[in-house]
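Hey, I was hoping to borrow your eyes for a little while. I'm sending you its amino acid sequence along with the backbone structure tokens. Take your time with it, there's no hurry, and the full record follows here.
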Amino acid sequence: MKRKTVLLVDDDKIYVDIIADILVERGFLVLKAYNGFDAFQTIEKIEVDLILLDIVMPEFDGLEFCKVTKKMTPSTAVLIVSGQESDSEIKMAQKCGVDEFITKPYEINFLVERIQHYLK
């Protein structure tokens, strides 16, 4: 069985490294990107099954990246993971095609369950 590929996109490198290690331990293949531009270059080259995406990043933010991604690969699940939840951000994320908005902090088992839900 092919391992599912998760692209983790966040400008907080420590967060990315910690979450990536946990997801690898849970059996996922994890690719890392620290901004929207790096993430975009990754999805141009490699097919990913799910994207975990921060909404607030410098230069190319999560919402803009999501818009582009959903046009390129509409079947790829996109989960926004953010500590800055507002009704307007959630509505904007929904308009961009985000599959789910997860608010930090969260339990790691909850995050893994949500990932597995979209990768069935």
About this structure: The radius of gyration is 13 Å. The first strand starts at residue 5 and ends at 9.
